[in-house]
Amino acid sequence: QVQLVESGGGLVQAGGSLRLSCAASGFPFSSFGMGWFRQAPGKEREFVAGITWSGDSTRYADSVKGRFTVSRDNAKNTMYLQMNDLKPEDTAVYYCNTVYRTQNLWGQGTQVTVSS
């Protein structure tokens, strides 16, 4: 079964850090680029960060550049998002994503709440 499972969310004070994980199964993870997205209440889902299949290239939304770092461990079929200097506006449900055989795959999401 093709699956993405996010974990690592929680409640943190502004300025704090969290590391999210996305565990993949059921497809050749090391052959696919991956991405992180987030959706805040009342807003559309937005791109946060992306990483190529090899991990040698990444890109970020302007709002998180310099604070968030995306990485992956292909031996563990897992992608990560290190989030530092968190701000209240980072509060959202965070999802990992890939496109596999024309199917847009999403995990169930993990809640990140940043208090001021």
Structure write-up:
By secondary structure, the chain is mainly beta. Strands 2, 4, 5, 6, 9, 10 and 11 form a seven-stranded mixed β-sheet that branches. A four-stranded antiparallel β-sheet has the order 1-3-8-7, with no helix packed on it. β7 and β8 form a beta hairpin. It is globular, with a radius of gyration of 13 Å. The mean pLDDT is 97.
Keyphrases for this structure?
single chain; mainly beta; 116 residues; 7-stranded mixed β-sheet; globular
Outline the secondary-structure elements.
Elements: E1 3-7, E2 10-13, E3 18-25, E4 34-39, E5 46-51, E6 58-60, E7 68-73, E8 78-83, E9 92-100, E10 103-106, E11 110-115
Parallel strand pairs: 2-11
Antiparallel strand pairs: 1-3, 3-8, 4-5, 4-9, 5-6, 7-8, 9-10, 9-11
Strand percentage: over 45%
Distance between the termini: 40 Å
Helix and strand element order:
EEEEEEEEEEE
Mean of pLDDT? 97
Poorly predicted tracts of residues:
none
Helix vs. strand class: mainly beta
Give the overall shape. globular
* Helix share, percent: under 10%
Specify Rg, calculated over alpha carbons: 13 Å
**For the report, how would you describe the main beta sheet?**
7 strands, mixed
Quantity of strands, as a count: 11
Number of helices: 0
Short overview:
It is built from no helices and eleven strands. The protein has 116 residues and is an all-beta fold.
